[in-house]
Protein backbone atom coordinates (compact mmCIF):
# COMPACT_ATOMS: atom_id res chain seq x y z
CA UNK A 1 0.00 0.00 0.00
CA UNK A 2 2.78 2.44 0.84
CA UNK A 3 4.55 1.78 -2.46
CA UNK A 4 1.31 2.21 -4.40
CA UNK A 5 0.51 5.46 -2.62
CA UNK A 6 4.00 6.83 -3.22
CA UNK A 7 3.95 5.93 -6.94
CA UNK A 8 0.48 7.41 -7.32
CA UNK A 9 1.53 10.68 -5.65
CA UNK A 10 4.49 10.94 -8.01
CA UNK A 11 2.20 10.43 -10.98
CA UNK A 12 3.85 7.17 -12.01
CA UNK A 13 0.73 5.42 -13.24
CA UNK A 14 2.43 2.53 -15.01
CA UNK A 15 4.39 1.44 -11.92
CA UNK A 16 1.40 2.01 -9.67
CA UNK A 17 -0.80 -0.29 -11.74
CA UNK A 18 1.95 -2.91 -12.06
CA UNK A 19 2.50 -2.98 -8.30
CA UNK A 20 -1.25 -3.30 -7.75
CA UNK A 21 -1.48 -6.16 -10.23
CA UNK A 22 1.46 -7.96 -8.61
CA UNK A 23 -0.11 -7.40 -5.20
CA UNK A 24 -3.29 -9.10 -6.46
CA UNK A 25 -1.34 -12.01 -7.97
CA UNK A 26 0.57 -12.52 -4.72
CA UNK A 27 -2.68 -12.77 -2.78
CA UNK A 28 -2.47 -9.52 -0.85
CA UNK A 29 -5.82 -7.95 -0.04
CA UNK A 30 -5.96 -4.23 -0.88
CA UNK A 31 -7.21 -1.80 1.73
CA UNK A 32 -9.11 1.46 1.33
CA UNK A 33 -5.95 3.54 0.83
CA UNK A 34 -4.76 1.21 -1.92
CA UNK A 35 -8.04 1.46 -3.78
CA UNK A 36 -8.17 5.26 -3.46
CA UNK A 37 -4.63 5.56 -4.84
CA UNK A 38 -5.38 3.26 -7.78
CA UNK A 39 -8.65 5.02 -8.58
CA UNK A 40 -6.90 8.38 -8.60
CA UNK A 41 -4.25 7.07 -11.01
CA UNK A 42 -6.87 5.64 -13.36
CA UNK A 43 -8.85 8.89 -13.30
CA UNK A 44 -5.83 11.12 -13.90
CA UNK A 45 -4.65 9.00 -16.81
CA UNK A 46 -8.12 8.48 -18.29
CA UNK A 47 -7.33 4.78 -18.11
CA UNK A 48 -10.78 3.32 -18.72
CA UNK A 49 -9.82 -0.37 -19.07
CA UNK A 50 -7.70 -0.23 -15.91
CA UNK A 51 -10.44 1.70 -14.11
CA UNK A 52 -12.96 -1.00 -15.01
CA UNK A 53 -10.59 -3.67 -13.72
CA UNK A 54 -10.09 -1.78 -10.43
CA UNK A 55 -13.84 -1.26 -10.15
CA UNK A 56 -14.38 -5.01 -10.47
CA UNK A 57 -11.84 -5.54 -7.68
CA UNK A 58 -13.69 -3.06 -5.46
CA UNK A 59 -17.06 -4.67 -6.18
CA UNK A 60 -15.65 -7.99 -5.00
CA UNK A 61 -14.24 -6.49 -1.82
CA UNK A 62 -15.53 -5.36 1.55
CA UNK A 63 -15.31 -1.75 0.33
CA UNK A 64 -18.08 -2.03 -2.27
CA UNK A 65 -20.50 -0.04 -0.13
CA UNK A 66 -17.89 2.33 1.33
CA UNK A 67 -18.85 5.86 0.24
CA UNK A 68 -15.22 7.03 0.32
CA UNK A 69 -14.12 4.37 -2.16
How would you sum up the major sheet?
Answer: none
| Cα distance spanning the termini | 15 Å
Work out the helicity level: 55-70%
From the spread of the alpha carbons, the general shape counts as globular
Name the beta content range.
under 5%
Q: Tell me the total number of β-strands.
A: 0
Give structural notes.
Helix content is 67%, strand content 0%. It contains four helices and no strands. The protein has helices at residues 2-9, 13-25, 32-44, 48-59. The radius of gyration is 11 Å and the shape is globular. By secondary structure, it is mostly helical. 22% of the residues are buried. The model has no long low-confidence stretch (mean pLDDT 84).
Helices, strands, pairings?
Layout: H1 2-9, H2 13-25, H3 32-44, H4 48-59
Helix pairs in contact: 1-2, 1-3, 2-3, 3-4
Q: What is this structure, in a nutshell?
A:
By secondary structure, this protein is mainly α. It is 67% helix and 0% strand.
Amino acid sequence: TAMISACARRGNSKDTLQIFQQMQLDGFIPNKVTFLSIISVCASQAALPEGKWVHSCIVGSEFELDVVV
